[in-house]
Design brief:
DnaJ homolog subfamily C member 25, mainly alpha, 70% helix, elongated, 340 residues, Helix Hairpins
């Protein structure tokens, strides 16, 4: 005997199948033939179908009927004519309908094709892609400005850059503004905001921000990079060919750009990260000649030794050594310590 759960599942499945089968009978023109409704054949073109539809629509228009029952019947027939006309005037729907007439046994496939066309979006996919790309570019551009403003705010609060900007502003006479200037009276807050704006402007002109904090540029947008992708690939292939030819085959010494590339590659830095370093730190890396494998190996060994010394001098390591000295370290257990 079936349990209540299985009985409920069977009833639900029967209802779903009944709904599907009932819906299939209503697709296209239902039990009627669209060609017969419009009094045309499958070989007639769209112009003839349009002409026949207009003729039948005039004949069966509800306004031409006299009695209420005749008007209701005319409205129903006109609705069928409209559905048939819509199907036969659309090339894709007409092709699907003809296929259904030729293959009536493929019931579920006809059901799928009918509702796929009926409820599929009518907007062009290219327009959707263009809108999405535009929105992404706008968000990306706003993000660039946000990062740039955050970097300027940080530099404006940094004592070193702030003092340098104030020195330049004082030399140019930009800070010699009194509370009464040209007939205008400024409050203390307005003078402070004006000074901050002057310092930020000087920092933006004197400090070369690079990497993710660089000044916003349309060239960095996704759409521009996508358009310039073929040119970028061409430049990369040309660079790779020159590298192999000059440095692998001809064994020429590295130029300055090649030294920078090898240095940041050995350090595991991207171009944006390398550009984000200050000039003194970049010069320090270049003076160590890290593009040479021997020099880089010596650098890594020196860094490892430095980290070992720092770890040995840390408070955590000192506490651990004190614990080992006082307790003798963690107790070592052997199989003899356990009773089986």
């Amino acid at each position: 005997m079936l349990s209540d759960v299985w009985l409920f599942r069977l009833i639900l499945l029967a209802l779903c199948l009944g709904w599907v089968l009932a819906g299939i009978g209503e697709i296209y023109c239902g039990e009627d033939n669209c060609y017969d409704l419009l009094q045309v054949s499958r070989d007639d073109d769209r112009a003839f179908i349009r002409k026949s539809y207009r003729k039948l629509a005039r004949e069966h228009h509800p306004d031409r009927q006299q009695t209420p029952s005749a008007k209701a019947e005319a409205e129903l027939h006109l609705r069928k004519l409209n559905i048939a006309y819509e199907i036969l005037m659309d090339e894709e729907q007409r092709h699907d309908y003809d296929y259904m007439l030729d293959h009536p046994e493929e019931t579920y496939f006809h059901y799928y094709r009918y509702y796929r066309h009926r409820y599929s979006p009518k907007i062009d996919v290219r327009i959707v892609i263009a809108i999405i790309v535009t929105v992404l570019c706008v968000i990306q551009y706003i993000g660039q400005w946000t990062s740039y403003n955050h970097a300027l705010t940080y530099l404006a609060r940094d004592p070193k850059h702030r003092a340098k900007a104030r020195e330049i502003a004082s030399a140019d006479g930009l800070l010699s503004v009194r509370r009464k200037d040209n007939g205008a009276r400024f409050t203390r807050e307005e003078l402070k905001d004006r000074e901050e704006a002057i310092l930020r402007d000087i920092i933006s002109r004197t400090v070369d921000l690079r990497g993710d904090c660089a000044k916003p540029s349309l060239r960095r947008l996704f759409i521009c990079q996508l358009v310039l992708l073929p040119y970028t690939c061409y430049c990369w292939l040309l660079w790779a060919f020159k590298w192999v030819w000059f440095y692998w085959i001809l064994r020429q010494p590295y130029d300055e750009a090649a030294k920078v590339f090898l240095t940041r590659r050995r350090l595991g830095m991207s171009e944006a990260q390398w550009d984000g370093l200050d000039e003194d730190r970049r010069d320090a890396f270049m003076k160590k000649q890290l593009w040479d494998s021997v020099a880089f190996q010596a650098y890594t060994q020196a860094k490892a030794e430095e980290m070992r010394i720092l770890a040995a001098q840390s408070g955590q390591q000192k506490r651990y050594r004190r614990y080992i000295r006082n307790t003798g370290g963690p107790k070592q257990f052997s199989m003899e310590d356990f009773d089986f």
